[in-house]
Specification:
By secondary structure, the protein is mostly helical. It has 4 helices and no strands. 60% of the residues lie in helices and 0% in strands. The two termini are 60 Å apart.
Length: 171
């Protein structure tokens, strides 16, 4: 009862086959960095053990600087693996090859906004006609409701048009 079944244990992460080489390279660079840190720690430990008690009058001992063991091909400081140009190029290639879900939905948005704009315009016209016909008899409440709803539909159509065109990429 104290053990959990195998299907509840988290599985070890395995990268997809097309990214396996990049993950292996990242792991190698991390291992090299760990080795460098261990080497630097060991050298500083040896340096502390090797230096005798210094008196204020004695000359300073030369400082021991660990050699760079990263490799002859690299120059300058180590780069962050996520800003590596090769990884950025890989992500760019993946983004181009992926199917964009809903890429053509902007057309449906434009069609819906056209329908809403027609309904809104129709309600506005009916509201104005009703306001003109009932101006003397005091029936302006119905006309103002039609005008308000027509204005709301036209505003919603304008908002949907803007959102649909932004989804398409227009700014």
């Amino acid at each position: 009862m104290g053990q959990t079944p195998d299907n509840y244990r988290p599985k070890k992460f395995e990268p997809p086959p097309w990214e396996r080489a990049q993950f292996e390279e990242l792991e190698r660079s991390r291992a090299e960095a760990r080795e460098e840190e261990e080497l630097a720690a060991a050298l500083s430990e040896l340096e502390v053990q090797a230096t005798p008690e210094e008196s204020p009058d004695s000359e300073a001992a030369p400082e021991i600087v660990p050699e760079d063991t990263a490799g002859a091909g690299e120059s300058g400081p180590r780069q962050d693996p996520l800003t590596d140009p090769r990884i950025e190029a890989m992500f760019l290639e993946l983004s181009v090859s992926e199917q964009k879900a809903g890429a053509d939905l902007w057309k449906i948005g434009l069609f819906g906004s056209l329908v809403l704009a027609c309904i809104g315009a129709m309600l506005l016209v009916w509201g104005v006609v009703a306001a003109v016909r009932t101006s003397g008899s005091g029936g302006m409440v119905g006309a103002s409701v039609l005008i308000a709803f027509g204005t709301g539909f036209v505003a919603l159509a304008a908002w949907m048009t803007i959102r649909s065109l932004r989804q398409r990429g227009a700014h």
